[in-house]
Specification:
- By secondary structure, this protein is of the alpha+beta class.
- The protein has 2 domains: 2-108, no CATH class; 112-203, Immunoglobulin-like, CATH 2.60.40.
- 34% of the residues lie in helices and 22% in strands.
- It contains 4 helices and 9 strands, in the order βααααββββββββ.
- The strands form 3 sheets. Strands 6-5-8-9 form a 4-stranded antiparallel sheet.
- A hairpin with a 7-residue loop joins strand 5 and strand 6 (161-165).
- Helix 1 packs antiparallel against helix 2 (41-58).
């Protein structure tokens, strides 16, 4: 099985811009396939423009401009990597989908094949009173491409509501005030089959 690769270390500034532009263009053209990118394509475009402008300024060898260019490059690389995790999740091992997003392919690490390990039950931290928000955290796993957090009112038979995150933490919003919710999480790896954690509960303020 293959997965996407990002060769930003070996790319010049111009090549990195071309890579970001290619990803932005292809994912925009495949909006049906990539409906809710994390981070958004608008965020990627903004970072690309900022990096392009900083690279132009740095061409004059101004020390401060060179430092800014390095910072903008690092920011753009971070966004590309986060988008890569999202694309991996959508692709579910389908090389054609990875290529459709503008990413390259490489052999996947066999050590992460198979069912993902069971995640630790998420820690729930309610926000301030009236916010209707709860911050969830779980232990990160190096093989995770995404994290899927779920919630529902405790004791209900409703289907779990899901929210994807590229990190091991996630802010759940729009919850009913003073209701008790239960939460769980699963890693999403090469094998997309979920392996949900035990649930944890918390009241929403």
């Amino acid at each position: 099985m293959s997965k996407l690769t990002i060769k930003e270390v070996r790319q010049t500034d111009v090549q990195l811009m071309q890579t970001a532009e290619q990803i932005f263009t292809k994912m925009t053209a495949e909006a049906t396939l990539f409906a809710t990118p994390v981070p958004s394509l608008a965020t990627l475009e903004t970072a690309l423009i900022a990096f392009r402008n900083s690279a132009t300024e740095a061409a004059y060898r101004d020390t401060r401009a060179i430092i800014v260019r390095k910072q903008k490059r690092a920011g753009l690389v971070y966004l590309i990597k986060e988008l890569g995790k999202y694309v991996d999740t959508i692709a579910k091992g389908d090389d054609s989908i990875i290529l459709a997003a503008g990413f390259g392919l490489r052999k996947a690490n066999g050590s992460y094949n198979g069912l993902v390990p069971k995640a630790k039950a998420p820690l729930a931290e309610p926000n301030e009173i009236g916010s209707g928000r709860v911050l969830l955290r779980t232990s990160p796993w190096v093989g995770a491409r995404m994290y899927e957090f779920q919630c529902r009112i405790k004791g209900s038979s409703e289907a779990w509501a899901s929210q994807l995150s590229s990190k091991s933490s996630c802010m759940i919003e729009g919850l009913e005030q003073f209701k008790e919710y239960e939460f769980r999480v699963t890693y999403i790896g090469i094998d997309p089959t979920p392996n949900y954690s035990d649930s944890t509960s918390s009241y929403v303020l």
